[in-house]
Specification:
The structure is a homodimer. Chain A is α+β, with helices and mostly antiparallel strands. In chain A, strands 1, 2, 3, 4, 5, 6, 7, 8, 9 and 10 form a 10-stranded mixed sheet that branches. In chain A, helix 1 packs across helix 2. Chain A is globular and about 60 Å long. Chains A and B meet through strand 4 of A and strand 4 of B.
């Protein structure tokens, strides 16, 4: 039976979502717990995509097959009783055998949190502490140029070589917290994101907010198809995979 | 020269504020950093009071004397460049030689955060995850009975033996977050709090919210002067020393 789970996690203590030689990944924790539940028969999981070390998730989606019979509700409970406290299964459903958590993605939403106010040690792993005023009006203008279908090669990792860098950003938002105007959240809803793409976009937006670039410069940066033209890569701690949508 | 600093800290990785045999306390970190700044001459600090392991502070107040000459602004900068990222000096002023961060306290404010909604792994060290609905109206009624001058012996640690358990709670509040009604913050402004007092008060309020006690039972619990009559001790993670006020 194939299951799809929605998980939230605090990425700050892990080496990212995806399995790797050094271990200590979200995927390792999920597979260890599921193998235990599956009468010790090894379980492999497939996620909607990776998240880097320090990046958090509110609704990462993951599918896997189990040999045992268990209801989705009982599976959710069993997983949450065995997983570490910084990973939580929010939802579990059974899906058809041809459903795939990565290949069937229709859209994904990421959010990035910035604190322009005083440094807060309690939020250091959860919000990017910029601690200076940014020109958020200019940032929002630049953000809106990113909506639509573009070649985002300038915003990928320099060593990310592929045939197709074209992605569609369906909607963006820049929201200031009503209770704390120094808290800014930038959101991106898109058909797909390449590695470091959101962090490179946010880093460039921050440098636009600093006045290093103008909002219209983002058009030239997009057209350059060259990572060196874009701005810095923003810290992982402010980034959250908020949701994944399927066909 | 005597200095008074206001510090914020994430208490989740420390064995509380106050120095102890096992080490790894906020006080240790402050004294190590200040001794370094003070040309390696040992500095001892005095705080407004201790906070337990896992308890956070938004404005803990601490005084100390230095042999070297340094402006408060430069001292703040020097401390923040040397302190670990989970302790932050928000403010630094020079004070008269007879000022004392503990003896001169006029009032203190604590807040306690409770999440009655879905478990959130990202906030596990910063909010008490209750994850069930509480009768907050009944809790607020009970909270109001705590205002005024009372003998709080029932809400102290069982092994806390002293002459005087009388304290004054000046003001209390129970606030539900406008954007998330499952987030409840309880605040206490008082002339002084004994060890575990706020956590024992909150634990009892939570059990009133569960229906284990009625709001009026809190009057009988106060009058019993007996720790065994009160409710549980609430988890440290939800508690913040919000502010300390001086004469």
């Amino acid at each position: 039976m194939r299951y799809l789970i929605s998980i939230a996690y605090d990425g700050s203590k892990y080496n990212g979502y995806q399995k790797q030689v050094q271990g200590n990944t979200i995927q390792d924790k999920l597979e260890d717990v599921l193998t235990n539940i599956n009468d010790k028969k090894r379980v492999s999981v497939s996620a909607s995509g990776r998240t880097d070390s320090g990046v958090h998730a509110l609704n990462q989606k993951v599918h896997f097959d189990l040999n045992i019979k268990i209801t989705p509700d009982n599976l959710k409970r069993a997983m949450n009783s065995l997983l570490p406290k910084d990973i939580y299964v929010r939802d579990c459903v059974s899906v058809s055998d041809d459903f795939h958590a990565r290949f069937d993605v229709k859209a994904k939403e990421y959010i990035y949190k910035i604190n322009m106010g005083e440094y807060n040690p309690i939020e250091k792993d959860y919000i990017y502490q910029y601690c200076k005023k940014l020109d958020v009006v200019e940032m929002e203008r630049a953000l809106k140029y990113l909506e639509g279908t573009h070649d985002f090669k300038s915003f990928t990792s320099g060593d990310d070589v592929r045939d197709d860098y074209v992605r569609t950003i369906i909607q963006t938002n820049l929201i200031r917290d009503l209770k704390n105007v120094n808290m800014v959240t930038i959101s991106f809803l898109g058909t797909g994101f390449m590695r470091y793409m959101v962090r490179n976009l946010v880093g460039t937006l921050i440098q636009i907010g600093e006045g290093k670039y103008k909002s219209t410069d983002i058009i030239n940066i997009l057209e350059a198809h060259d990572r060196r033209k874009a701005g810095m890569c923003a810290d992982a701690c402010g980034l959250y995979l908020k949701d994944v949508f399927y066909r």
